[in-house]
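The material for today's practical consists of a large collection of protein records. Backbone structure tokens are a discrete shorthand for how the chain folds in space. An example says more than a description, so a record of this kind follows:
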Amino acid sequence: MKLKEINKKLTEYRGFDDAKLREEIVRLKKEQFNLRFQQATGQLESTARIRDVRRMIARTQAVLREKAPKAAV
């Protein structure tokens, strides 16, 4: 993914509520599972997509953590 696409997606994610972000994480994890399955069976055409999905999961989780209230220490 290009940097502009990533920034656009993150801006979009920051507008989502917590439930929608969790749904997006679930969707990305399902896609990641399917990509790993395709790789195992030799049907995967773009191995870079696995890395992109893994990083988008991390970015989505980071946005979710940004929205969470800070825990009192």
In short: The chain has one domain: 3-67. Helices lie at 3-14, 18-41, 48-67.
